Amino acid sequence: MTTYLKEDFVYDDDLLLEDSLDSAGDSSPIVASQAGKVLDVATVRDLGDGVAEGYMVVDIDAIEIGTDENYEIKLQGSQAGTFGTDFIDLAMVELGHADTLVGDQDVGAAGDRFVVPFRNVQNGEVWRYVRAYLNILNGTAETITTTIWLAIHRKK
User: Fold this and answer.
1) From the centroid of its chain, how far is CA 100?
2) Residue among 47, 46, 41 nearest 18 (CA)
3) Coil, helix or strand for 4?
4) How many structural domains are present in the chain?
5) What residue ranges in 24-143 does DSSP mark as E strands?
6) Mean pLDDT of the chain
7) Residue 14 in domain
8) Residue 138 and residue 135: Cα distance in Å, rounded?
9) Residue 6 pLDDT > 80, yes or no?
10) Can you tell me the mean pLDDT for 58-87?
11) Which residues pair with 48 in a beta bridge?
12) What tens digit of pLDDT does each residue of 72-83 get?
């Protein structure tokens, strides 16, 4: 486990959800919707049976936003580590071209960091297992390379 301070957030390898690397450690851009992977292996993290709050930190290494690209990056929670059909969205950030988003601004560029608060409790129910999910909604040349990780603190 590697733990260090990174821009006011404690980074922990055990909370990494997506690294956009293949099994050899080479860059592997994402071009279609998928669950988060670390070294090309689908990754689910167990936050335990208590309340966890914190931030989903999304670092963008590369992204194509051209004229019609649209991406949703979600933190999903589940009651089971398999993420069968029992899961919900706990937090989300939307990136892409202005024409695909609410507002009139492109969102997302190489080097950007998005910090999205989350809580693993919805309607009194703890969603113990979490994963990142990258939903590619639209685009003619969609591609994103990103690192997604959690910075959490426990509620007593």
Assistant:
1) 20
2) 41
3) strand
4) 1
5) 34-35, 37-38, 41-42, 45-46, 52-63, 70-78, 87-96, 113-119, 121-122, 125-126, 129-138
6) 90
7) yes
8) 9
9) no
10) 94
11) none
12) 999 999 999 999
* pLDDT attached to residue 153: 75
Number of neighbouring beta carbons within 10 Å of residue 107 = 20
Domain that holds residue 35: 3-151
Q: What CATH number is attached to the domain comprising 53?
A: 2.60.120.1110
Say which residue the tokens 């998928």 belong to: 34
Tokens of 126: 């703890």
Are the CB atoms for 39 and 19 separated by under 8 Å?
Answer: yes
Supply 146's token pair. Answer: 């990103």
- Whether residue 31 contacts residue 143, with contact meaning beta carbons closer than 8 Å, is answered with yes
Q: How confident is the model at residue 70 (pLDDT cuts 50, 70, 90)?
A: very high
Q: Which amino acid is at 31?
A: V
Q: Which two tokens stand for residue 51?
A: 């309340």
Residue 146 belongs to a domain: yes
Query: Looking up tokens 């990142």, which residue turns up?
Result: 132
